[in-house]
Amino acid sequence: MPPVDSNQNPDAHAAAAGVYGTNVQKNTPDQRELEGHVLLKSAKFMQDMQDDWDNITPDILEETLRYNRQIWVMFYDNAVQNPDGNRPNDLRSNIVNLSNFIFKREIEVIAAPTKEKLNVLININREVAAGLMTQQKAETDNPPTNETAEQKQVEPAEQSGSTDQSA
Prior knowledge:
The protein is mostly helical. The protein has a domain at 30-138: Four Helix Bundle (Hemerythrin (Met), subunit A). The chain has helices at 10-27, 31-51, 58-81, 89-111, 118-141, 149-152, 156-160. Helix 2 packs antiparallel against helix 3, helix 2 runs antiparallel to helix 5 (118-141) and helix 3 runs antiparallel to helix 4 (89-111). The longest helix is centred in the middle third of the chain and has 24 residues, at 58-81. The model is unreliable at 1-6 and 146-167 (pLDDT under 50).
């Protein structure tokens, strides 16, 4: 540990902490984006397993499905244990129902493995990930403003600069 310089400016530490905090905010993905990436990673694992089905052992199958299940357990737990959160009841219910479907489907795959049974799991992960990431991108691209709907609407002639107003 370097010696402490008693002549150091205490504001330098505050400035460094501020820069660090700003950098972390810029470079740390949003929770939904992170969840989307994890779902895509799981979908890729299952797709890779499906593509190499003849070489898949029961252990590989179980480990891949366990990874996916852990993700969906997190979604399930978050929906059930956070009733006062920012999610509406119907969304929480949909998450619980979708999680239950995932769990049942994984049991079916383990009980009687076929690569075709993985299709629905792969598709659900991809679709949910796309929704999470699209929602995040939309919020980033279009931050909420105080403009009214009338203020946001611009006539097509005003946008193009055209003086032709025949319609």
